[in-house]
Each structure stands twice: as C-alpha cells, then as structure tokens.
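job 3f2a | input accepted
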Amino acid sequence: MNSQDRKPSLTAVSVAVLRAMHQLHDGSPKILSDPVIPQLLDQATLDKINSDLSWKQDALTTGLRSHVVLRSRYAEDRLRDAVGRGVRQYVSLGSGLDTFGYRQPPWASALRIFEVDHAPSQRAKVERLRACGISIPPNVEFVAADFESASLREIFSRSSLDVHAPAFFSCLGVLVYLAEDAVQAIFELIASFPKGSEFVLTFSQGESTNGAVKKLADASAKVGEPWRTYHSPEELTRQLLKSGFSEVSVLSPQEAKDLYYRDRQDNLPPPSRSSIACAIV
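job 3f2a | predicted structure (281 res):
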C-alpha cells in the first residue's frame, strides 16, 4: 500500500484507549501517570470506558493494559537516566498517540523530541491535539516515516536529528508489524549512533507459545495490521549484539514486578513473560 493511501493506525487508537482506562480507573499509584491521554479520545469512547466497566474483569484486556503502561513507564524511566548522562535527543519510533511530549517533566526540558510515524497517523494526532487545545511544544518535531519504504537514515535526513550525537530511541509495539529485514535495518542504524545511545523496544515471543498473543495477533490482522516478526529473548539478544550494541538486557517478569507492581491493590497483573528489552551502544 502506498504510504499516502494509508489510514491512521487503529491499533494506535486501541493503545490510547488502554492508557486512558489505566489513568481513569486503575488504582494508585499509577504505573504510568498520563492525564493527557483521555483528552485525545472522543467523548463517545470516554463514555463507553466510564459507563461499562466490564473490561476491568476481562483477562486479555487487563493483561494488555498492564503491558501498555509498563512499557511506556520503563522507557520513560530509562530516558530520564539517559538525560542524566547527558543525552539530549529522544526519538520515538512509531510514536502513535504517545503523550510524553505534552506532559514533559522538568528533566525533559533540554531534550529535542522526535516523533516518528507514518503521515496519516501524525495528521490525525495533530488534529486531536488542536481540537482539545493542547499546543505542540517547541522541542517536539514530527518526522513522517514509512519504515519499509525508506531507510531510517533517509528518514532522519529530513529532520534536525544530529546523527553524530548520542540519542535515546524507543520503539514500543512496532517491530512486530515490520518485516524482518526492516527490523534488522533499524537495529543496525541505531547501533551506529555514538556511544551512550540507548534503545528500548518491545517484542513478541510468538503466538504459538501463548493463546492470548494469538488472539491479539488475529485481531490486529483483521484491521489490516498483521504481526510479522517474532523473537525469543535469546534470539533478540543475539541479534542486537550482532548488530553492534555493546550491552543488551531483557526485563524479566520478576524485575518488572519488583519495580512497578509491589503492593498494588487493584487487579493489574505484572507480566507473565518477557516482552521489553533495552540495548546500549
């Protein structure tokens, strides 16, 4: 499909709904505090979230909601640490309706934030921001991209990103939709950035190993966004190291539980298997 003919991502909207559910109805402390995300949803969607809470008891929705907020929280925590080391560029690959740029904490003020996504989704996001009166901060730059029709290097050449300076990259809920060669190209380019750069990414271990994953993959395929690439933690680690990263760590379920789920009083479950990784150049 020609990139100009693509429609805004439906799965990106679904992720926004899950984040709004967490913000509006899960217990405190929030794993991810995101007061902006409900504003980006239409009133009919918010009314449905608030009026019928049966979704709170659905195991698939609950597990996916937990994963969505965990991956963003983990990425933002790693980004904060990278900023502390002097990194001043943040690249969000497949940014969707992510709201970090519109609820920036004080430590992010020195960052240049690049939201990279295909143009139809970016246009829809800008329209949503404008409709609810949220201004685009001067340190946020939109970069239109189709990861499978142009290289990241070509995409970045159309932006103000300094490829000679360290950068922090996040790629959350994206790689599974790409062909293996496109994934490898992303790994190699990010690994070519200067020492101190960092990459937080999510991956799926494969629908054959988990019934819930198969349901999610099937639902995504039905809206025209099929899952294409899978990794085991061991395969992913080997591939990232071979691509040029010096260090790779995979967030284990126990680590995630210790960091973010201790003493929760709601039914938000910690992950049952690994799906988030971090790689350092």
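job 3f2a | Residues 27 and 160 are 40 Å apart (CA to CA).
job 3f2a | closed
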